[in-house]
Design brief:
disordered N terminus; 1% strand; flat; mainly alpha
């Protein structure tokens, strides 16, 4: 309420009470819902409260009075003296502290009648000197007493509400504790069930492992039994083979006794083979003579080749042109000479082989030294005789192979010789053709050089004449200008 000289202006002030956690007495109350029984609930404006207020004399209904007081509180506070206004403010603050939310304060909105009454009172009291010297009227004192009684009733209700709320909180806490205990019991039960299941699974796995071990043990035992049976059958087969070998050994001993009687016949055959070896030695000597003749022929051919090469070199030296082609032909001739040298080496190798064969043939004459002087042992003469027969057969085969190889080498040599001669003839023809071509090229080059010289002379003479004519024309032009 703001007073201005001559008129009054009322400005409503918005008020939002702060939610107090604790009251002046230190009692705790919260915003949890009321969960008490219906017998313990004493709400403001209920039938119990009306019955309680009807017993008090000289009091109006609490709801209307409360609204009137709240609507008239700003004006009353302004019109009252300082002490009463301070006391009223303290009671109003206690009332605001006891309220739990802004919704309880919304019921204290001032009515239009209270505002009109207060405005009349304020206009009547404008003529006073100061607001502090005003004295409260009896109606205002009664209103203050009524307000105090209402505030006390409200405090009692709030205390009762706090008690019921605390009781409800204890009940809720008890319920939550019981739920936690139930959850703990359920967790223990689930853990016990899980442990039991793990134990049963471990036992099952152990049983399965034991069964697998038993199965593998049985399989291994079966495999070893089968292997043992197989080894026993192999040992019986080996014993049978040993018995058969013993029988064969006895038969071979009897055969050796028979062969000792045949040894004399073998000795006679040995003498026959020695005579055959002497004849073969004569044949080898004849082959040596043939080889010598062939060597002589080779030497004569080589001499002829050397003569041909000398002639070729003389012709190549006599030729002045075609040096590059002559050099290539010379390389080819060198290759032919190398081929001839290889043929000579092959012939020498064949001669060495024949000499070795002859030495082996002559060494067979000493084969009688292999036989013992006395027939004390029957096995060794037979073995030596068999070796001698094999050796003689081998020598015969080697001699036949050498003859065949020699014939083949002779044919190859003749073929190579003919190829060399044909190649030499072709080289000679190429040399002649190259010589003729070089001579023709030289003649053409000489003709061209002569023609070039003639052309160059003609060009120089024409240039000189042109220069002379140009000089004369310049002189004439200069003379005309002058």
């Amino acid at each position: 309420m703001v007073f201005v000289q001559g008129n009054s202006v009322i400005r409503p002030v918005a008020f939002k009470p702060g939610s107090m956690r604790f009251t002046d007495n230190g009692e705790r109350y919260g915003s949890t819902p009321i969960l008490a029984r219906s017998s313990h609930r004493h709400l403001y404006g209920s039938t119990n409260e009306l019955h309680h207020q009807s017993k008090k004399p000289n009091m109006i209904s609490s709801g209307t009075l409360d609204r009137k007081l709240r609507s008239a509180s700003p004006m009353v506070m302004s019109s009252l003296p300082a002490q009463t206004s301070c006391k009223f403010r303290l009671g109003q603050q206690d009332d605001f502290k006891s309220s739990s939310s802004y919704s309880s304060y919304r019921d204290y909105r001032p009515s239009s009648k209270s505002f009109t009454r207060l405005s009349k009172r304020c206009s009547a009291s404008e003529g006073s000197a100061s607001l502090l010297d005003l004295t409260p009227s009896p109606s205002e004192s009664t209103m203050l007493s009524e307000m105090e009684t209402v505030l006390r009733d409200r405090d009692r209700e709030l205390r009762h509400l706090r008690q019921t709320m605390e009781h409800n909180e204890q009940v809720i806490f008890r319920v939550y504790q019981e739920k936690e205990n139930a959850w703990d019991r359920e967790l223990r039960r689930i853990k016990a069930m899980g442990d039991n299941r793990l134990k049963t699974a471990a036992q099952k796995s152990l049983k399965l492992e034991q069964m697998l071990m038993m199965q593998t043990y049985k399989d291994e035992k079966k495999r070893l039994q089968e292997e043992n049976e197989r080894l026993e059958s192999e040992t019986t087969d080996l014993k049978k083979e040993i018995d058969e070998l013993k029988v064969r050994l006895e038969e071979t001993e009897w055969g050796l006794c028979q062969k000792s009687g045949e040894l004399a016949h073998v000795k006679s055959q040995l003498k026959d083979t020695q005579s055959e070896l002497t004849t073969k030695g004569h044949e080898v000597i004849a082959l040596k003579s043939e080889i010598r003749e062939l060597l002589q022929k080779l030497e004569s051919k080589e001499r002829r080749i050397d003569e041909l090469e000398g002639r070729r070199l003389e012709r190549s030296n006599s030729d002045n042109g075609g040096d590059g082609n002559c050099y290539d032909d010379q390389l080819e001739a060198d290759k032919l000479c190398s081929l001839v040298g290889r043929l000579n080496e092959q012939v020498e190798n064949e001669l060495n082989k024949s000499n070795k064969l002859l030495s082996e043939c002559y060494s067979t004459e000493d084969l009688q030294s292999l036989f013992p002087k006395k027939d004390t042992e029957a096995d060794s003469p037979l073995e030596k005789f068999g070796e001698l027969e094999r050796h003689t057969a081998k020598l015969i085969r080697v001699l036949n192979e050498e003859r065949k190889n020699w014939d083949q080498e002779r044919l190859k040599w003749f073929q190579e010789k003919e190829k060399v001669l044909c190649y030499q003839r072709q080289l000679q023809m190429n040399y002649v053709q190259m010589f003729r071509r070089t001579q023709a090229f030289e003649a053409q080059i000489e003709n061209l050089t002569v023609q070039m010289n003639v052309c160059s002379d003609h060009c120089t003479s024409s240039k000189n004449t042109a220069r002379k004519t140009a000089a004369t024309t310049v002189k004439t032009v200069n003379a005309i200008k002058l």
